[in-house]
Amino acid sequence: MPPVSPELISPRSARVAAARRLAKRNFRGKDRLFLAEGPQAVREAAGHRADGTPTLVELFTTPEAADRYADIIGAARTAGAQVHLASEEVIADISTTVTPQGLVGVCRFLDTPFEDILAARPRLVAVLAHVRDPGNAGTVLRCADAAGAEAVILTDASVDLYNPKAVRASVGSHFHLPVAVGVPVERAVAGLQEAGIRILAADGAGDRDLDEELDKGAMGGPTAWVFGNEAWGLPEETRALADAVVRVPIHGKAESLNLATAAAVCLYASARAQRASGGCRSVTES
């Protein structure tokens, strides 16, 4: 089991330079590696494996963080990751946050082939179509995880799953459920429909009301929600692919809901309906 480096790693180290460049998408894609920052994300990464291979490759930690998060350091070492002691200067150099928390992990890509998601017969799926803001993407991923969704799909017109802001916004949910990336929206919808999954497009101008759909008992079956860009929503051609276009009702005076809030409402509505019909795993299951 690799020990923690006894000395601080140099800012000029090749390992530091390799980690630093993962802030850029082209290098992430070339190396198939990304950064996970902070104790929650690193803890989840240390415990994650894909096909038996540990996800966490390296961990950079300040001495103070190593003492404070000894359990995470131990989990990283158990996973076989190289653990480097680093100065605050090095952590700041690698980190993409304004106030780093002293832990930065280097992780292997963990996206799942779309065909594997279909083969697992998921009952609740979030599809991010044309979502460009990484914070929104990461937050929707977190909402999907919390609601008990069994997969997330990012279309080829959406933001990079491994953008540091998206990883931070998911607060560890990157490591909890299968995510397919780069899937054309037409292919995503067609594949899900062929698997017997109802496609609901979430749009403020939808002709179906979410409350009414719930009251009719129409939400208990396998469902994939399609969410669009927060600024301009879903284009007409994407809405046309769905089985129904559903709006979240606004009962007060708010002009609208932001993307992540609307996604949480829709996903939880489906999760509740599916649990009531006995068709979806409980969000309390381990």
Can you give a write-up of this model?
This protein has 286 residues and is of the alpha/beta class. The protein is 38% helix and 20% strand. It has 13 helices and 13 strands. The protein has helices at 14-20, 25-31, 39-46, 63-68, 70-78, 88-94, 114-119, 134-147, 164-170, 185-194, 210-215, 236-239, 259-276; strands at 33-37, 49-50, 53-54, 56-61, 82-85, 103-108, 124-128, 151-155, 179-183, 198-202, 208-209, 223-227, 244-247. The strands form 3 sheets. It has a 7-stranded parallel β-sheet with strand order 9-8-7-12-10-13-11. The protein has a 4-stranded mixed β-sheet with strand order 1-6-4-5. Helix 3 packs parallel to helix 5 (70-78) and helix 8 runs parallel beside helix 13. The chain is elongated, with a radius of gyration of 20 Å.
Strand share of the residues?
A: 15-25%
Largest sheet: 7 strands, parallel
Distance between the termini: 28 Å
Question: How are the strands of the largest sheet arranged?
Answer: 9-8-7-12-10-13-11
Helix content: 25-40%
Low-confidence residue ranges: 280-286
Structural Rg: 20 Å
How many helix segments?
A: 13
